[in-house]
Amino acid sequence: MAFRINSSQQLSLTDITNSLTLREQKALENSWAKIFAEDIFPAIDEERFRILYSDRTQSKFNTPVNICIGALIIKEMFQISDDEIVENLMLDPRYQYALHTTSFEEQPMSDKTLSRFRKRCYDYEQETGIDLIHDCVADLSGKIAKMMKIHPGIHRMDSLMIEANIKNLSRTELLYSCIAKLARRLHKLGRGDVLEGLEHYYDKNDFNRTFYYSNSTSTEDITQMLLRDADTITGRCRDGLETQEEYRLLERCLSEQTIVEGDTRRLREKKKDSFPKAMMQSPTDPDATYREKAGKKYRGYVANVEEAVDSNGSVIVDYQFEQNIYSDSQFLQDRLAGMEQQEEGTVFVTDGAYCGESNTQAAQEKNIQLITTALTGTEVPDIYADFEFSEDGSKILRCPMGNVPQSCCQSSSNGHYYVSFPKEVCMNCPHKEECRVKEHKKVCSFTISLTAGYRAKAKRFMKTEEFSLLSRIRNGIETVPSVLRKIYHADRMPVHGISRNRLFFGCKVAAFNVRKLFSYRNGWGHYAQNPLFAE
Predict the structure, then answer these.
(1) Mapped to the 3 state alphabet, what secondary structure does 460-512 carry?
(2) What is the spatial distance between Cα 149 and Cα 509, in angstroms, rounded to a whole number?
(3) Residues 104-161: pLDDT tens digits?
(4) Is residue 281 within 8 Å of 166, Cβ to Cβ?
């Protein structure tokens, strides 16, 4: 299929808007479709998607990319299905007006258009690692921020857990599901020789018979049967069937959930054996992982959202989507690594999970000030903020009273500095107790780390009025996860796999931002009373 830009629309004599009454035209002009048609649709960059299509002009041309992207955004705005967006585009002038198709003799979308477009994006990401939807949404978000006249000087971050669209399986149910999935694949391939004696696994009623209707079989007996059958079927598949995805999933399940001792395979014991960090939770969605956070259990993914905010409102300017074992600190590191040097000073306001000396230094290198509204870990004396470290962080130059250490060495194991001063210097110092020095025969010594100095400076800054204002701004992003869950149903995405979930989440972010633009156009601003934004 060949690629063609849909950068303009030629109005025809049969344009649907010509047949509307004045009252209908006025209603159309006052609807959401006008803002979408004039601001959002022209801002969608089609060129980046050229790589998904052929260069042969003799081929059939693609459905315009900006129509596909626009439809995906509108679909998330109103939480409707692919079939509903196709139907609405045929019957509702607002949808046609928003997507610039009012002059089309036949609407360009069919029931397969969006699924095929998404598949092209999935396949391209699998092949190259480039997420075109993310790049498109991030670019569109930046344009929306400019439309709303949001200055990019203050950004705030927060993360949210995303539940995968999978059943909560026990370990034995997971093992059974992997065996059954492989059995069904072998049955379709006509490999009855491999399935001899295991045919019951591809019966759709076998799961219930195994776990719910077999009163005479204990859980231990079921587990042992599954382990034996798993070894049997994987052993028979080692004859040209190793490339099957279902075989690899069963092998992964066995390696993560079981241990072989001698000639016997057993399940790993929670108190005795270690488990891999990214264990599979379901063969239906092998990318989903398990994590406990704040006393709750999650199976799925984690997303990180970054908003630019000022007195005109806020817009999500970037997002990240990974397995839920990904930490907030790693999200920030990845974001900073992908950013260019900021010409104007930028402030990132986050919670304590994003803090760390390495993150602060990485932010400073990009002309970004990282401010965390909470700090985790042990308390440190306030006086540590006044110690002067060398630029390369290899030693301490001066103490808060301006004294040069007699000796200073850094531990290679934990990075702590072991510092000593002449005894008379420390014993007459008013900060002796705060520094927690140890008295020796000729010197006084103590231990300090670069991290402790950073924490002390951060704690001191947290007492300022500027920090109080930034903290209030940071609190505003706490509503974003709630909105993405309750209005855009981020926990109920109807797909499996990290690439597919990431694409759907990106469209939800775009829909979230488009609604922000609607609010701005209607004069619903935010934060206008915050002194930090005062002119």
Answers:
(1) HHCCCHHHHHHHHHHHHHHHHHHHHHHCCCHHHCCCCCHHHHHHHHHHHHHHH
(2) 19
(3) 888 999 999 999 999 999 999 999 999 999 999 999 999 999 999 999 899 999 999 9
(4) yes
